[in-house]
Write a sequence for this structure.
């Protein structure tokens, strides 16, 4: 009886491996591709995009939820919001060196100007850049909230994952 | 009654296990940002290095068929022993013990096959040790931090080597460099891990303005993983190149976290208590110029 239960459990785990669920996000929330976490292992899932030059999109800063939490009105003094973006290839599921970076993007989206490699996995992350009382400030690079994710480690294995199509 | 209760416990444990990684139990680090008043009083910033000596852990990997076999056998014995102990049931433990010699033999064969030749591993250790000795760590991190801060933080930034009249000192140390991989592996994938520890000190009274906590979490650069012999190949080319990336990455992290970082108050920006991670050693003495 016990063996049968264990076998059923193993079958469920096997069926779920490779599946992904929407992940909790720290920082700017990605809209396309979305932030997903592998169902079985606590690691980033790589979401397939529609082209080798995808248009990445994320929620603008500050979003309604962040504004609601702003008790002392600091956010009302923020000016000139732009965004920084970086893309890093995944090597053995860990981000390697930045291959694409843009700073000062005016919109909360960006169509890549150069193509990514086909059938490849990448990590990507964004942050807001703005002036507060005349000084330049940046939010933390956004990432998935994973069990051992941390502000102190960079690059992070919890940046968002994307996978390119064959061609 | 016992059955439904046990069922509920199993379902609860399953849900807990599955939900764990999605934010319910996360405890990422949060480095406290510099407060606004301190930020306004920085004045002229002098960049310096510290007296902390960098430690390295770049060697001692399994080389040679004999050592590989011994390690493989040892690992297999350990895994089987743990499996038997964790089962806590004689009907499981006895068969596990019965097949342990077979597993140990298998582990030994696997270890002998996977282990790299002893001579090559020794040579690689020597190459990496020599590459570490060649590094001018303090000079490199000092120069990168200076470069990363100049023109970006809204205050004049100079090297403490060149100027004595500064209001605040940013002292930076690199306490450790190591190759980190899974211990339970004969030839593991290894990530280069480099730690950096910044301190901000007010010159007038020597007060430490940053970090606000002790022991402070170290900033960490982690590379993608490579095999031991890959790190050491071509006179440790990948190791030397990755160190250059580490200096730049850590310098950017230091400057952005201390001087530019902004974390709003909303729930999206809230994280839990610090997770265990590398911490900075207590700094002693005056910053080096």
């Amino acid at each position: 009886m016990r063996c049968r239960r264990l076998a059923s459990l193993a079958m469920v785990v096997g069926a779920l491996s490779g599946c992904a669920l929407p992940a909790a996000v720290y920082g700017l929330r990605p809209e396309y591709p979305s932030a997903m976490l592998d169902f079985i292992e606590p690691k980033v899932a790589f979401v397939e995009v529609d082209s080798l030059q995808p248009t990445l999109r994320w929620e603008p800063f500050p979003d309604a939820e962040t504004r609601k939490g702003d008790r002392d009105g600091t956010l009302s003094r923020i000016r000139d919001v732009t965004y920084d973006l970086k893309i890093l290839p995944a090597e053995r599921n860990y981000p390697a060196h930045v291959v694409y970076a843009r700073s000062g993007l005016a919109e909360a989206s960006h169509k890549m100007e150069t193509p990514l490699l086909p059938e490849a996995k990448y990590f990507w992350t964004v942050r807001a850049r703005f002036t507060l009382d005349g000084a330049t400030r940046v939010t933390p690079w956004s990432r998935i909230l994973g069990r051992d994710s941390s502000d102190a480690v960079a690059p992070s294995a919890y940046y968002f994952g994307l996978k390119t199509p064959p061609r | 009654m016992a059955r439904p209760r046990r069922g509920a416990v199993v379902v609860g444990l399953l849900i807990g296990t599955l939900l764990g990684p999605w934010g319910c139990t996360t405890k990422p680090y949060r480095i406290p940002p510099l407060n606004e008043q301190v930020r306004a009083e920085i004045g002229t910033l002098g960049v310096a290095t510290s007296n902390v000596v960098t430690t390295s852990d770049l060697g001692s990997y399994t080389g040679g068929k004999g050592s590989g076999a011994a390690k493989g056998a040892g690992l297999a014995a350990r895994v089987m022993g743990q499996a038997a102990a964790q089962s806590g049931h004689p009907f499981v433990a006895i068969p596990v013990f019965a097949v342990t010699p077979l597993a140990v033999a298998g582990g030994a064969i696997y270890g002998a096959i996977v282990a790299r030749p002893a001579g090559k591993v020794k040579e690689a250790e020597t190459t990496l040790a020599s590459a570490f000795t060649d590094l001018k760590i303090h000079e490199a991190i000092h120069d990168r931090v200076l470069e990363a801060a100049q023109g970006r933080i809204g205050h004049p930034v100079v090297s403490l080597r060149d100027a004595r009249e500064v209001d605040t000192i940013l002292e930076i140390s690199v306490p450790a460099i190591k190759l980190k991989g899974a211990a339970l592996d004969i030839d593991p994938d290894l990530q280069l891990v480099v730690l950096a520890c910044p301190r901000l000190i007010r010159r007038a009274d020597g007060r430490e303005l940053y970090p606000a906590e002790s022991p402070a979490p170290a900033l960490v650069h982690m590379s993608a993983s490579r095999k031991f012999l890959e790190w050491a190949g071509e006179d440790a080319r990948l190791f030397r190149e990755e160190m250059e990336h580490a200096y730049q990455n850590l310098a950017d992290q230091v400057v952005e976290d201390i001087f530019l970082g902004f974390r709003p108050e909303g729930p999206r920006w809230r994280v839990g208590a610090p997770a265990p991670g590398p911490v900075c050693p207590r700094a002693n003495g005056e910053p080096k110029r």
